Amino acid sequence: MTIERVSEKHYPKAELGRRGMALGLDFLVAWLISSVLGSGNPGIQFAQILVFAIAWLILRVLVVYNNQGQSLGRWAFDLKVLEVEDGRIVSRIPEVQALLKREAIVGLGALLVSIVLGNIRANPTAILLVLPLAIDCGAAFSDTQMRQALHDRYAKTFIVSSRRGYSLDIKFKRLVANVRRNVRR
To answer: What is the distance between the alpha carbons of residues 134 and 114, in angstroms, rounded to a whole number?
Structure first.
């Protein structure tokens, strides 16, 4: 009896810029939904925080679990989240518990950024609330092999490029190239 090696399926690593844009799009949607409840007064708005947290969980957990590992932002930029076991990427969507762990960490950082956006004029030192998200996501820059942020390592997930999506970044690059070409003529 011989043991056959099964070739691993290769998953292309997601570029950090695309990951950032996808996170930014998801943040923008959740922030716009929650900002409807904002009173315009500086300070912490508890109803706004609650709506942001609920919108974040719906966008980044429920939608991802039911949409082949893609949130709205990841779909727009052709990315998807997969599970990691023993350092190898498993071609399956993470369970809800793993997604909840992952999004609780990054969602807290995003929530702090939303608080900054509402209070930056009244209190410029609120910019320091961006640090937790920057530290969490900044870990992906130092991880040259897997490009995992701290929330990815904790939840044992990995972001890969996908063939399924809208390719917003590619369409935007084509549009800019066409505009540049037309301006030069």
So the answer is: 14
Helix ranges restricted to H, 39-167? 46-57, 63-66, 72-76, 96-119, 131-142, 150-155
Does some domain include residue 11? no
Number of residues that make up the chain = 185
Structural domain of residue 34, as residue ranges?
16-184
Which pTM was predicted?
Answer: 0.86
Per residue in 5-61, pLDDT (tens digit) is 545 567 788 999 999 999 999 999 999 999 887 666 666 788 889 999 999 999 999
Q: What distance lies between CA 156 and its chain's CA centroid? A: 15
* Cα–Cα distance, 124 to 96 (Å, whole number): 37
Residues whose CB falls within 8 Å of the CB of residue 88, separated by 6 or more in sequence, listed in order: 8
